[in-house]
Amino acid sequence: MTDPITRVRAMAPVKEVHHALTDAAALRVWLAEHAEVDLPHRYEFWGRYTPEGDAPHQTLRYVDDVTLRFGWLLDGEDTETEFRLTEDGDSTIISVYQTGYSFDDAMSGATIRGVLGTFWALSMANLVDFVEGREVGPRTDFSSSELRAEFLVDAPVDAVFASLTDSEQANIWFGYPVGIEPYVGGRFAMGGLDNNPHPAKIIDLEPDRLISIDWGAEGVSTWELADSAGKTRLTFIQSGFDDGNPPFAAWTGTLGGITQLRRFHEVKPWRAIWLPTGGSVDEFATWLAQQDEEGDAAVSSAATRQ
What we know:
CATH topology of the largest domain: Alpha-D-Glucose-1,6-Bisphosphate, Chain A, domain 4
CATH superfamily of the largest domain: START domain
Structural class: alpha+beta
Mean pLDDT: 88
Largest sheet: 7 strands, antiparallel
Radius of gyration: 19 Å
Order of helices and strands: EHHEEEEEEHHEHHEEEEEEHH
Strand content: 25-35%
């Protein structure tokens, strides 16, 4: 394992982060539906929020005060996951390393291992919220093809809508270039309007109420907004995809992004949790260029949230 698959900063001491990583009750809040831990012998999690979560498939291999490493059998391959905790002043840097993950698999959906990039990105975002005392957001239900999630954002509807439709604001909270033409028929381009040859298309937009984006084979994403006592009830729905192969990687990546949309409005002063990892952005840019060369019109919104 060379570069981490994702890397985040939590405003909490190493000891608290380590406890959240190794306490079964905590794991059931931010990571998995079910978890059982008995260090240094057992570290298992499973259930509907876990890829191939029909049963626990993890084998604990090493643990100390700043490291946790386990094997994870996924789609017949023995992968390995490692967490490394680094003290940085009043904060902890959490680096996640993962074998068996391919960016091409994330784009194609050929194996469940393709979700690992966004799975760990979303999981780390939820872990950060957990150790910082914030409400943990929705997790991906890998047992269902119904992709629907609700968030409560502590900000007025017009401010949340602006952050969803203004490129400059979206670039900040999403952590990756996004080009948005906020009108029906306008482009929604991961990587930016000048860098994505096959952008998604906005097919419906009602100011302060909803925006729908057509991603082609991955279906249609819809954000619905409603006032809730001065806050915003944000409902995110993905529809129109192949039920036999739900776009779990892209969906999970967007859920991870929306955790940061909440922080963008609620944490003052704003600070991103994501730290450089060394490869994922370049991989996505390279993949976009390949689509242009090959004339492939099916551009994925898949996870760039590592």
